[in-house]
Design goal:
The chain has 2 helices and no strands. By secondary structure, it is mainly alpha-helical.
Length: about 90
């Protein structure tokens, strides 16, 4: 087997050993970068989900508020709602 000349002037390090070491270091660096990217993507996804839930909650409250205002425009509807709520409280 023929040895390649010493790599980078390092004594006792053949070209193959140097290539193997550099290749291993590069693979490890790539693995760390991929893990870091996965974590960043996961965090961004969680933040987007939270923001989406908050927006859906706000829209739901706005819709409910508009529905209640529409239904409570007259005294009869207000009285019926109050009576229904009092009945529910008495049952519990």
């Amino acid at each position: 087997m023929q040895h390649l000349p010493a790599a980078g002037g390092l004594p006792g390090v053949t070209g193959r050993k140097a290539f193997s070491r550099v290749s291993g270091e590069a693979a490890e660096a790539a693995r760390r970068e991929m893990e870091s990217a996965r974590l960043a993507i996961d965090q961004a996804r969680k933040e987007a989900e939270l923001q989406f839930r908050n927006e859906v909650g706000k829209v739901s409250i706005d819709i409910a508020e508009k529905m209640v205002r529409t239904r409570m425009q007259n005294d009869k509807a207000q009285t019926e709602l109050v009576n229904r709520l009092l009945d529910e409280i008495e049952k519990n």
